[in-house]
Amino acid sequence: MKYIDKKEKINFYAGLTGQNIVYSFIGAGFFTYFMTDIAMFPAAIVSALLIIMKVWDGINDPLIGSIIDKHTFKNGEKLRPLLRYTPLPVGIFTVLIFLVFSTEEDLLWLRVAYFIIMYIGWDISYTMQDVAMWGITASVSPDGNERDTFVKWARTIGSCVYGVFSALIPMAIEMVANATKSKMAVVTLVFAVILGMGGAMLSARAAKAKERVLVKPETQQKSIIESFSLLFQNKMLMLVTLSNLFGALGFGGQLTVYFFKYKVPADFLGADSIIGALGLTTIYGAITYGPQFIGMLFADKLKKIFKGYVNALIFMQALNIVTRVIAFAIGFEGANLWIGMALMAIGCIPMGAASIAQTSIFCDSIDYMEWKTGKRMEGVTFSMQTFFTKVSSGITAGLATLALSILDYVAVDDAATTFIGTQSAAFDTWIWPLFMLTPAIASLLYIIPLLFIKYSPEKRAQVEKELAERRAQVNA
User: Fold this and answer.
1) Is the distance from CB of 227 to CB of 65 less than 8 angstroms?
2) Which residues are CB-neighbours of 70 under 8 A, at least 6 positions away?
3) Closest of 76, 462, 448, 18 to residue 239, by C-alpha
4) Which residues have C-beta within 8 Å of that of residue 224, sequence separation ≥ 6?
């Protein structure tokens, strides 16, 4: 039996598109560049801000998830109403975060305080929306295979939108600023108003999705403490979360724009090109990460070949290690940079299925915990997804800016005629290995927790069968 109709899918995917347009401003590498080179915060301050914000995320996300799990609206739902109420505050705070009212040193304390307040407001509203957005994927259908297909396309569409916009927005901002001779801060704010607020309003369409696996009041968690207790009993969830936190140590991707700005000649694409470091970063992303979209389309094939998504994830990370080590050995001088990017493109093809695999494992863990304890925990489970997404981005950005600080990085205004040779000797020596090899090391660490997950396709089938029998008895 099929539960999800075409109209429901279109509305949910449209809402997911809007949400990822918003997140492409804050979750991608451009956010770090905005803080260091547009808002002109010192690198050490940026590193401290990002780490502090992500510690806040570590407290905030599971707390909000547990509150969602213990609360049910009058209509019996606990997730869908949140998708109606959260888009407006998400859009407003997205715009306010990118308001640069000054770059004066004597107002640094005020700028930092303003930024922290705006980020906290954004984070609370976004977390509530994101937990509901992905939590509902575990409740939209009681059929595991239909749910997997729904998750596959949700992740594919969401990742495509995020990838395209996170790559094109910095390039578009830079090109508009160069063409109009406008300040980057002004152009960034205009883009935030148009796409940030517009994406947030579009995300409200996700509320058309339906919750079909509802929580019985008598089986609902009675307290936040109980929610956290169940969270830490969910071995699959904790191991995947640990893998993602290890993966966050690969902060080299956050250094891409700095590598292209200070190590690649300005005339790399031609003397008259208006494409600068941000544009080169976009081209690099399109070549190396664009092929991930192919992997998303064949996620189900990878699951079949490797007998489950856990083994598929291990294969993806291993291939990433191999291609990055080879690309590093080749180097980036001249045409070698193109060769290295081509190698990484090959390694990234199966990586596109990683987010699909992780979400599927999360959904499986919810079913498993219901089978084991009689309680469903979509809220706190997907708050952990939100948690590791934001904490991981914070760790990578924080480590990247910490590395810049250690390497004595000093931002050079975009009005300069050349950037090569303007940084320290330590920066020139270490930026390439940090950029290329830290993600490979992170992939190696990522694999280790996955080796301890034991949830075979046969076990999954058993859990789904017995849950269906229990629900039939309750509804009889």
Assistant:
1) yes
2) 220, 221, 222, 223, 224, 226, 227
3) 448
4) 63, 66, 67, 70
Tell me the pLDDT tens digit for each residue of 318-329. 999 999 999 999
Q: Which has the higher per-residue pLDDT, 289 or 441? A: 441
Residue 255 CA neighbour count, 13 Å, CB half: 29
Scan for tokens 């020139």, then name that residue.
428
Residue 438 to residue 435: CA distance in whole angstroms? 7
Mean pLDDT of 288-304: 84
For residues 187 and 108, give the distance between their C-alpha atoms in angstroms, rounded to a whole number: 22
Question: Is pLDDT of 47 > 90?
Answer: no
Tens digit of each residue's pLDDT (9 = 90 or more) over 251-269:
888 888 888 888 876 666 6
pTM, to two decimals: 0.67
SS3 for 73? Answer: coil
Copy the structure tokens of residue 314.
Answer: 């291990």
Q: State whether residue 228 is helix, strand or coil.
A: helix
Give the span between the Cα atoms of 33 and 431, in whole angstroms. 16
Q: Which CATH architecture has domain 11-204+219-471?
A: Up-down Bundle (1.20)
Nearest to 14 by CA among 107, 92, 83: 83
Burial classification of residue 423, based on how many CB atoms lie within 10 Å of its CB (0-12 exposed, 13-18 middle, 19 or more buried): buried
**Interacting residues of 281 by C-beta distance below 8 A, sequence separation 6+:** 29, 167, 170, 171, 256, 257, 260
Q: Where are the chain's structural domains? A: 11-204+219-471
pLDDT for residue 214 is more than 70: no
| pLDDT over 70 (residue 193) | yes
- Whether the pLDDT of residue 220 is over 70: the answer is no
Helices 378-406 and 425-450, packing angle to 10 deg: 160
Mean pLDDT of 282-290: 80
Nearest 5°: the CA angle 173, 42, 267 is: 45
Half-sphere exposure of 284 (CA within 13 A, CB side): 25
Give me the count of residues in the chain. Answer: 476
Burial of 442 (C-beta count, 10 Å sphere; 0-12/13-18/19+) = buried
Query: For the stretch 210-219, what's the b/e string if a residue is b when 16 or more beta carbons lie within 10 angstroms of its beta carbon?
Result: bbebebeeee
* Distance between CA atoms of residues 306 and 354, nearest Å: 13
**Average pLDDT rounded to a whole number, residues 142-158:** 83
CA 290 and chain centroid, separation? 16
The more confident residue out of 168 and 321 is 321
Concatenated DSSP letters for 173-186? Answer: HHHHHHHHT--HHH
How far, rounded to the nearest angstrom, does the alpha carbon of residue 356 sit from its chain's CA centroid?
12
Mean pLDDT of 154-161: 86
Name the one residue in this structure whose structure tokens are 């090959």.
346
